[in-house]
Amino acid sequence: MQGSWSRFNIVSLILGFAFLYLPIVLLVIFSFNESRLVTVWAGFSTRWYVSLFSNQGLLDAAWVTARVAFISATVATVLGTMAALALTRYTRFRGRLLFSGMVFAPLVMPEVITGLSLLLLFVAVNFDRGFATVTIAHITFSMCFVAVVVQSRLLTFDRSLEEAALDLGATPVKAFFQVTLPIILPAVVAGWMLAFTLSLDDLVIASFTSGPGATTLPMKIYSQVRLGVTPEINAVCTILIAIVTIGVITAAIVNKRREVQRLRDEQAARRL
Length: 272
Known about the structure:
MetI-like fold, single chain
């Protein structure tokens, strides 16, 4: 009898995971390679991590990337949450279709078109390209992802909880921050993490909108890879993988604990 875990399914699963994660595993392994040749294993060593922290160019690019990602993800989360609230709570208002299309357009727009459009905008308004323009560009394309995540949570939100708070005398703003926001917080955090990761990963849009002193880490890595992959690049990519992995695991643990606590509170309320 062929069950859900047939031999074909198992082999397909193994091949799929190998295709996705084997290159990442090899990158991490060769970041500890003693040899300068990235494809020849010469023994275990951490010399390239030591060399990385003395490479001022990579460190500066990493610092720019971290600041851009944090600021853009935070602003995009606020704007994306507001957009999701508007689309969910106000289903009928003039220009809703246009507003919805403008919010979600970056989801389907090629990055090269978005980057070129923003470049032409900054040139037209005589806005010098640099840290600010990269941050604005990242807010523009990452806000829609936050809106999608938060909107999906708001569609299943029980409005009666918010209405009960309003009936008890809370203002709409107070009801949102004390009732609505704590419930949808996992979706907001997930949206922030998605925007942060997208900003860390972006190369195309940053290439169009960056200027002097605003070279991001993906741009720096790409410019060096064109001359040949070095073990230092493997090391910095491994560090990025570790940061993203730790962030995802931490968020999953926090959300799991919040869900368990919520279930306990609901059970306690039913007993009363």
